[in-house]
Amino acid sequence: MGKRDGYYIALGSFDGLHKGHLELINEAINLAKRDNSKSMVFTFLNHPREIINKNYKFHYLMENIEKKKILLDLGVDEIVLKEFDCSFMKISPEDFIGNLCKEYKVKGLVVGFNYRFGFKNKGDIHLLEELSKEYNFKLKVIEPFMYKEEVVSSTRIRNTLLEGNIQEANNMLNRPYSLSGIVVSGKQIGRTIGFPTANLELKGNFIIPKRGVYYTNVLYNNKLYKGITNIGNNPTVDGESLTIETFILDFDKTIYNEGLELLFLGRIRDEKKFNSLDDLKARLKKDKEFAEKAEIYYKK
C-alpha cells in the first residue's frame, strides 16, 4: 500500500463528542481507510455562538484537551482546532469550502444531517451537494442518532445534565460526564465532622449538573477513587455561592492547588438544609455507604 493521499474530513462543533458525533467521525475514518487516505476532524477551539453574540456565555460539555485525546484514541489522523473569530465569521459558505479544498486535498466531507456553515449559517446540505460537484469530493451526510425516539444532540445532553439526570446524559455521551479543575480552599466545615471535602474550581465555562449530591469517581494522579460530590450552596452552613465539593473515600492527602477530574456516575439525592451538623453528618454517613457499595467506572 502506497502513501496515503488526501483527506476525508468530519466537519462540526462536536461539543461533548456524543454517540451521534462518534458515528459521524468513525464514518470519516472508515471512508479514509477504504480510499487509502487520511481522516481529519475540522472543528473549533471556541463555540461560534460566543463570537456571534458577545453577551452570550457558552457552557461547554468538555475541554479541548479531552476532545483531542478522545479523537486520537478513535484513530483520527489529524485534528484541526480553528479559532472562530470575527474575520472567520464573515467567510461565505462557498469560500469556507473553497478554502478548505485549497488548503487540504479534500477527497470527501462527512457532516451531520443538520450541518450549517458559513456567514450567518447560510450554507446547508443542498449547497454542499452543489459544491461537492464543483470541487470533486464525495459527500456523506449522517442521519440523526436516536436515543429513546429523540435525536441525540449536545443541547439535549446539556438540558439532561441541568435536570440532574446523569445516567441518561452518560448513555448519550457513551462515557461519564466529567468536570476538571483545581482544588481550592473552602470553609472546611466537612473536616470538623469527619468528611473533609475537595473544593473544585473549574478551569472554564462548563455545564454544571443540577444542584444535589452525586456519586462520582475522582481521578487524581492517574488513580480512580470513589467520591460523594455536592453541587450547591451548602445551605446547612449558610453557603451562598455555588460550590462543587467532593468527599473522597479512602483518601487522606492534602491536595490544594492540585488538579482533579470528577466522573459523574449517578445522582444520590437533592441538596437539603439540615437542622444541625449532626443531622448532616448522619446523612453523609448514608451517602458514604451508598458510594462504598457502588462500582468504580472502568473504560470498556
From TrEMBL:
Q: What are the entry keywords?
A: ATP-binding, FAD, Flavoprotein, FMN, Kinase, Multifunctional enzyme, Nucleotide-binding, Nucleotidyltransferase, Transferase
BP-aspect Gene Ontology terms:
FAD biosynthetic process; FMN biosynthetic process; riboflavin biosynthetic process
A Gene Ontology molecular function term for this protein is: ATP binding
Every copy of the Riboflavin kinase domain together lies at: 172-294
Q: Does the keyword Glycosyltransferase apply?
A: no
Please give the InterPro entries that the UniProt record associates with this protein. Answer: FAD_synthase (IPR015864), Riboflavin_kinase (IPR023468), Riboflavin_kinase_bac (IPR002606), Riboflavin_kinase_bac/euk (IPR015865), Riboflavin_kinase_dom_sf (IPR023465), Rossmann-like_a/b/a_fold (IPR014729)
Record-linked Pfam families: FAD_syn, Flavokinase
Name the reaction it catalyses: FMN + ATP + H(+) = FAD + diphosphate; riboflavin + ATP = FMN + ADP + H(+)
First-tier enzyme category under EC: transferase
Which family, according to the similarity comment?
Belongs to the ribF family.
What is the protein name for this chain?
Answer: Riboflavin biosynthesis protein
Taxon lineage: Bacteria, Bacillati, Bacillota, Clostridia, Eubacteriales
